[in-house]
Structures are given as structure tokens and as C-alpha cells.
């Protein structure tokens, strides 16, 4: 990431809530601080597409995280519909393969209104909650997590997508293989002392930027904090101090 970029533009707050009321309670104190939010399945399924317009009207950028994963024709149609909602970033599962991802990109392009910017399209590699033994034994995918993530990143690039979701720990290898411009969006962010919860491949916000992540996705560390504004400010200050 370029040193000149405002890191607040690169820190996406995951709004994992199920009602508009909870979203309002969370973002109102954070207004003027946060710039980018993520709407995942919990919120999108509960509140529908209107939630995207609501957040856009607040001046926030929106990552609509619906992790599309289906046959190519269905993924294409899903993306054509999603393109009309006004999100800035959308995603698919890279495990759907090159044909599915290429079809998703085509659908997204078809659905984007003339003159409007196409949302950034990224592929989820290996979920950050997945550890080595789950990947090797349950999913029966051999090899190291790093090698599988880089392989999925290369499939994603081949399909013409803009980048991937991965853990920050894999970013240096992804950038080396797929190029510096290939976008990396990284959940699995835990400030020192934060509860790890269900995440496996984690690191701190400052380390994630140091490793070259373009965007950090941070959910519960902020949204479950006693004082989300103070937590946000502390993360920003820690990252800025680390980058000097
Ligand atoms: O696509 C995602 O955003 C995603 C991919 C992944 O591999 N891991 C992952 O945690 N996420 C999302 O990132 C957010 C992380 O939330 P916290 O663990 O609360 O910070 C959640 O909303 C997840 O749905």
C-alpha cells in the first residue's frame, strides 16, 4: 500500500448485525471516523438491499460480502443483480473455480450502469477461520495454507478479478506471486489483547499493514468493544505510529 494513503480509507468495519437499529447504534458514534463498512450475510439477509443505500447515503463506502459460490451461470446472474445495489466491493469464493469467477466478473460488468464505476471484485481464498488441520483433514486439501492461498490467488487473477480475501499472514506471498497491484483484503485482525474468537490466521492491524495488506476488515474488536470510538482511535494511532 502506498505510504500516502489515508489508512482510515483502508480499514473496513464489519457490521455483523441483524437489524438496522443495531447498525445505527454502532455507526452513529463512529460517524466522521470510519469511512468503509462491510455488510455481510447476516445483515443483508435481514435488511435487504436497502441497507446498502442507507450506508451509502451516510457517505460510507460499502463492501457487500455475500461470498457468491455457485455454477457460473448463477454466479453471473447474482453479480448482475448485485451490481445494481451501489456497493464499492463485492466477492465470490475462489473455490468456485476460474469459469465461475470469470462469469461473475462478466455479470458484474453487465449490471454496472454506463458511466458508473464497477465495484471491486475479489475472491475469497481460504477462510481465515480455517487452520491447517481443518484444510488438510476435513476438506482433504493437501499442502500448506500459504501454498493453497497463493494458488487460489493465481486462479483469481487468471479469472480477471481485482484481488483476494486472505489472512494478512499470506499477503507477502500473494503480492510476490500475483503482483503488487493485486488487491489484498484481510480479515483476521486482532489488536493486542482482543479475543481471537473463531479466527485462526490472525495478526494485529499494524502488522497487517506492515505485511502489505491493502484493506483490513475489522469486526468484533471494534463493534463489541466497550467504547468503539476509543478502540477505533487507538487502532488508527497505533497503525500511524508504526508507519512513521
Ligand atoms: O470475506 C470476508 O470478509 C471474510 C473472509 C474470511 O476469510 N474471514 C472473515 O472473517 N471474513 C469476514 O470478516 C469479518 C471478520 O470479523 P471479526 O472476526 O469480528 O473481525 C467477518 O464479517 C467475516 O465474515
From TrEMBL:
<feature type="binding site">
    <location>
        <position position="16"/>
    </location>
    <ligand>
        <name>substrate</name>
    </ligand>
</feature>
<dbReference type="InterPro" id="IPR014732">
    <property type="entry name" value="OMPdecase"/>
</dbReference>
<comment type="subunit">
    <text>Homodimer.</text>
</comment>
<feature type="binding site">
    <location>
        <position position="220"/>
    </location>
    <ligand>
        <name>substrate</name>
    </ligand>
</feature>
<feature type="binding site">
    <location>
        <position position="38"/>
    </location>
    <ligand>
        <name>substrate</name>
    </ligand>
</feature>
<feature type="domain" description="Orotidine 5'-phosphate decarboxylase">
    <location>
        <begin position="10"/>
        <end position="235"/>
    </location>
</feature>
<keyword id="KW-0210">Decarboxylase</keyword>
<dbReference type="Pfam" id="PF00215">
    <property type="entry name" value="OMPdecase"/>
</dbReference>
<feature type="binding site">
    <location>
        <position position="128"/>
    </location>
    <ligand>
        <name>substrate</name>
    </ligand>
</feature>
<dbReference type="InterPro" id="IPR013785">
    <property type="entry name" value="Aldolase_TIM"/>
</dbReference>
<dbReference type="InterPro" id="IPR011060">
    <property type="entry name" value="RibuloseP-bd_barrel"/>
</dbReference>
<comment type="pathway">
    <text>Pyrimidine metabolism; UMP biosynthesis via de novo pathway; UMP from orotate: step 2/2.</text>
</comment>
<comment type="similarity">
    <text>Belongs to the OMP decarboxylase family. Type 1 subfamily.</text>
</comment>
<feature type="binding site">
    <location>
        <position position="190"/>
    </location>
    <ligand>
        <name>substrate</name>
    </ligand>
</feature>
<feature type="binding site">
    <location>
        <position position="219"/>
    </location>
    <ligand>
        <name>substrate</name>
    </ligand>
</feature>
<dbReference type="InterPro" id="IPR018089">
    <property type="entry name" value="OMPdecase_AS"/>
</dbReference>
<comment type="function">
    <text>Catalyzes the decarboxylation of orotidine 5'-monophosphate (OMP) to uridine 5'-monophosphate (UMP).</text>
</comment>
<feature type="binding site">
    <location>
        <begin position="65"/>
        <end position="74"/>
    </location>
    <ligand>
        <name>substrate</name>
    </ligand>
</feature>
<keyword id="KW-0665">Pyrimidine biosynthesis</keyword>
<feature type="active site" description="Proton donor">
    <location>
        <position position="67"/>
    </location>
</feature>
<feature type="binding site">
    <location>
        <position position="199"/>
    </location>
    <ligand>
        <name>substrate</name>
    </ligand>
</feature>
<keyword id="KW-0456">Lyase</keyword>
<dbReference type="InterPro" id="IPR047596">
    <property type="entry name" value="OMPdecase_bac"/>
</dbReference>
<protein>
    <recommendedName>
        <fullName>Orotidine 5'-phosphate decarboxylase</fullName>
        <ecNumber>4.1.1.23</ecNumber>
    </recommendedName>
</protein>
<dbReference type="InterPro" id="IPR001754">
    <property type="entry name" value="OMPdeCOase_dom"/>
</dbReference>
